[in-house]
């Protein structure tokens, strides 16, 4: 809402600026309000086209999050809104593009109907009554504008939730048309339609042109019968009546030559060149960093269509909660997808891994390639079979809100189904050693529909539970597992999972009671709330985090959002 209000304010201020200028110059007779609306909307488009790329600079965001440049936690949490800001800028571009196009349609009609022979250089039309369609399809600004509208329409429609869920490929390929859009935008503003006057001293706007007046057989006061000086600002004699059209601020200004106009330098280049260059440099850096394929050490097929891939890469470092982007050319030449790290490399082991849910075309093809030479889906393929794996490239790591989970004294982590992956890397890190982190109590809530889904990380949870018991810190982690749908099976199969079976509950969490209990046990503390799961759960947790309580406990909400 704030960003929308800011854009409306910018539109209005620019509109007033050009409206006042039109009354002072000559274009008001030719274009009217169409120019004001088109220029005001263009200013908003310049701002948003400049900023829409910055949230997509993942390396920059990861650097700011992980460096000491942003020491404030509140400021770092603003970086988590990068995707939301990107979407907001995109929607703003769509809205004001419609306004911009409508204004230029009116401008094209006005240029044709109000052709003025007195100011030939200002006319976009070649003659009065010229077909406005020629201005739209036979000029560089018009043709590039039409193509940009088509590109923007494809990007906008393909970005809807329905298309992204049903066919992500369409979203991916159409969204990469942004580069075409920016190239057309730079050509669009180089047409030189908008011009400014270069000889204001010799021809002040509103000045009196005697030669032109005499040619039009207008009545001239006797004081002008003598030859005119080149330029004067002397006031009229007090006893001489002055014709009203020639009065300006109680004195007359006479122009010495005809007005001259020149095209503006495209201001849009100043707006978009910086962010566009920054984005291109970052993409080049990411390409160089990820151009060497990783070494896949093992592939594990888990229940409920979940695949675990473990790999190694030279000089790869990551923090718990970060994510990477996987690209497999044999699956898709251009398409790549983000996956949260479930295992981070440490000083003692270089292996890192991801868990991916097989739910779409890309993941299905990727699974088939990895398990092609495996007779049993559950088999861990040994490293000597590495030559059979397809080439896999890893781009990243990139930052996410879950990096902050270790920076709170108390954290509440809520996962829904495969949304447990961000917390798996946190749990693995705590298994290696928890004393060096600020975190002193972790509430871990995991909700699944199927009992077998808990086996994805059941071994990890049991090992961490046993480790904390051995170190006499059983209260460090509070594990609650919820089975939302049951067919009578209420235990995780296996004797080694007894510690988890006692924490397995049937049904859904009672979130209000859960928050009250956590607030009561942690009075006057700030608790980080982290959620990765369905939007329904996310909205509930967000609402409860914003509610006040009688214990002085404050909840800070964080949500996973791939940018």
Automatic annotation (TrEMBL):
Which reaction does this chain catalyze?
A: NADPH + 2 O2 = 2 superoxide + NADP(+) + H(+); NADPH + O2 + H(+) = H2O2 + NADP(+)
Checking Pfam families in the record gives: FAD_binding_8, Ferric_reduct, NAD_binding_6
Report the EC number(s), separated by commas if there are several: 1.6.3.1
Give the FAD-binding FR-type domain ranges. Answer: 289-404
Q: Name one GO molecular function term.
A: superoxide-generating NAD(P)H oxidase activity
Q: What GO biological process terms does the UniProt entry carry, in alphabetical order?
A: defense response; superoxide anion generation
InterPro entries the record matches: Cyt_b245_heavy_chain, FAD-bd_8, FAD-bd_FR_type, Fe3_Rdtase_TM_dom, Fe_red_NAD-bd_6, FNR_nucleotide-bd, RBOH/FRE, Riboflavin_synthase-like_b-brl
Subcellular location per the Swiss-Prot or TrEMBL entry: Cell junction, Focal adhesion; Cell membrane; Cytoplasm; Endoplasmic reticulum membrane
Q: Which UniProt keywords apply?
A: Cell junction, Cell membrane, Cytoplasm, Disulfide bond, Endoplasmic reticulum, Glycoprotein, Membrane, NADP, Nucleus, Oxidoreductase, Transmembrane, Transmembrane helix
Lipid bilayer topology: Multi-pass membrane protein
Which sequence ranges are marked TM in the entry? Answer: 7-25, 45-64, 85-106, 135-158, 170-189
One Gene Ontology cellular component: focal adhesion
**Keyword Phosphoprotein annotated:** no
Q: What does this protein do?
A: NADPH oxidase that catalyzes predominantly the reduction of oxygen to H2O2. Can also catalyze to a smaller extent, the reduction of oxygen to superoxide. May function as an oxygen sensor regulating the KCNK3/TASK-1 potassium channel and HIF1A activity. May regulate insulin signaling cascade. May play a role in apoptosis, bone resorption and lipolysaccharide-mediated activation of NFKB. May produce superoxide in the nucleus and play a role in regulating gene expression upon cell stimulation.
Q: What is this protein called?
A: NADPH oxidase 4
